[in-house]
Amino acid sequence: MNTSTHVNEKIYDLAIIGGGINGVGIAVDAAGRGLSVFLCEQDDLASHTSSASSKLIHGGLRYLEHKEFRLVREALAEREVLLEKAPHVIRPMRFIMPHRPHLRPAWLIRTGLFFYDHLGKRKKLLGSNNVYFKADSPLNAAITQGFEYSDCAVDDARLVVLNAVQAREKGANVVTRTRCISAHRENEFWVVHLESKQQGKYQIKAKALVNAAGPWVAKFIREDLHLKSPYGIRLIQGSHIIVPKLFDGDKAFIMQNDDRRIIFAIPYLDKFTMIGTTDREYSGDPALVQISTEEIDYLLSVSNAHFKKQLKHQDIISTFAGVRPLCDDESDNPSAITRDYTLALSKVQKGEAPLLSVFGGKLTTYRKLAESALLQLKPFFPQMQGKWTAHHSLPGGEQMGTVADLAEKIQQQITDAPDALTNRWASAYGSRIWQIVGAIDSVTELGQNFGHGLFAKEVDYLIDQEWAVLSEDILKRRTKLYLEFEPDQVEGLDEYLVESHKRRSQEIAA
User: Boundaries of each FAD dependent oxidoreductase domain copy (predicted)?
Assistant: First the structure.
């Protein structure tokens, strides 16, 4: 690695630290308003909190109990906006809440669902209704009725990547595996010191600094900027288990538990059920968070209290855990800590470069958070253009129709492509799939087959266009094929990536 530090002479309007959903959301909004933007992420895009969610775009029904009406109203309205922007990675989903009278009375749930139906504008999503369970229900026989309502499922990591792709297309410079070592003010600029394996140490200048470091937001202020953080941060661990399909159909279940928490059981990737999430304080390194035995026991217990099919530890195929960086509101109950976001703009002297830090936030409201962030920064950039993201599709969402229609079009061109492959392509890439397949008309032209419908053409696209470097980037965050791949297949993909990296390095050197 090059140990000397070189200077990128370009002065950016914004330097953004953090490649999770909030960082890329601010980057794409700012770039689309005519600002020059630099974003760095220390690992892969969405490699921490933003890929460890329950993979929902939802209003947050349970937040009504904590009187978070502003957050719920904003989130409910955003469901429709995001469905329109990204119909490939976001889809409507019906949720069934089995009624357990000793936990919440029916009138309370009906009241909550009435608010849920009417707090935000609802055009595409169906309203709530009562449901009654028959003998063929997957639920325990004692559960005879419940409630049903609408929210949306999302591929969380792909939502992040698509925003990053759009930010780049709007002119932003997005770099991954690049750590911000430190930053300091020099009059009207921030000097940002960076380090990556590719470029070694270098620095850039920016007129404003946005700290969207997620779980590291307060640590970054204290240790890298040597400033006082305006807010404390509470790291709340949320963990999930993935098991073989627990029930038929495409509806999810929202299960109430005796501790008044709710747990989702969500159909996942056609073959599995995802169960989560937990809520507990976390004090370790956010990069090392893992599900605990107690959390596994808790999730199994809640599932087994609801479903006829009883789960054991050995049924678990995979697990994942992440930490939500919530603004510390001094609540005693981790479930009651606000999920709303707080934006902290540092007080600056005249002519001094501003710092904007993002505390908290939800996947669902990332776009509104970005608009709020740019409203705070507008006094420093009077030339900034107006809001634009609400009515612009994300990459792949342009002129795609429905996922089913697109999958059919792909199959008309590549007649030997199996349904599972064309459906995955359509729901991952939308109309951008044509950039991968071009004019080819047979799967034999897709190059090396790594297994489970992953071919070299797709891998090359992910390297060239979506910042993929490692097999984990591709299998976990870009395609979700990690649940299917055997170790020897992962090894084959790793070998290809090493060779691809060598070839690209030689081309650049030449």
Answer: 13-330
Q: pLDDT tens per residue, the chain (510 residues)?
A: 445 567 667 899 999 999 999 999 999 999 999 999 999 999 999 999 999 999 999 988 877 777 788 888 888 999 999 999 999 999 999 999 999 888 888 898 998 899 899 887 788 899 999 999 999 999 999 999 999 999 999 999 999 999 999 999 999 999 999 999 999 999 899 999 999 988 899 999 999 999 999 999 999 999 999 888 888 888 999 999 999 999 999 999 999 998 888 999 999 999 999 999 999 999 999 999 999 999 999 999 999 999 999 999 999 999 999 998 887 755 555 555 556 788 999 877 788 899 999 998 889 999 999 999 999 999 999 999 999 999 999 999 998 899 999 999 999 999 999 999 999 999 999 999 999 999 999 999 999 999 999 999 999 999 999 999 999 999 999 999 999 999 999 999 999 999 999 888 887 777
The structural architecture, per CATH, of the domain 59-155+234-335 is: 2-Layer Sandwich (3.30)
pTM exceeding 0.90: yes
Cα 354 off chain centre by = 27
DSSP 208: E
Alpha-carbon gap, residue 371 to 389, rounded angstroms: 9
3-state secondary structure of 407: helix
403-509 is classed CATH 1.20.1380.10: no
Cα gap 66→68, rounded to integer Å: 6
> Which residue type does 450 have?
F
For residues 247 and 418, what is the distance between their CA atoms, to the nearest angstrom? 24
Contact indicator for 299, 313 with CB cutoff of 8 Å: no
Closest alpha carbon to 63 in 362, 373, 370 = 362
Backbone angles phi, psi at 226, to 5 degrees: 55, 45
The alpha helices in 189-292, defined as continuous H runs, are 217-219
* Alpha-carbon span 268 to 320, nearest angstrom: 14
Q: Which residues of 346-374 are buried (b: 16+ CB within 10 A; e: fewer)?
A: beeeeeebbbbbbbbbbbbbbbbbbbbbb
What is the DSSP code string of 2-68? --SEEEEEEEEEEEEE--SHHHHHHHHHHHHTT--EEEE-SSSTT-SGGGSS--EE---GGGGGGT-
- In the structure encoding, which two tokens stand for residue 204, read together? 């850039």
Nearest of 198, 228, 97, 226 to residue 150 by alpha carbon = 97
Domain parsing of the chain, residue ranges:
5-48+158-231+339-391, 59-155+234-335, 403-509
Instruction: Please give, one letter per residue, the 3-state secondary structure of 228-239.
Output: CCCCCEEEEEEE
Give which of 278, 245, 272, 255 is closest to 140, Cα–Cα: 255
Counting other chains too, the contacts that 333-337 makes at CB distance below 8 Å and 24 or more residues apart are 334/234, 334/236, 334/279, 334/280, 334/281, 335/62, 335/260, 335/261, 335/279, 336/66, 337/234, 337/236
User: Tokens in use for 57?
Assistant: 């775009």
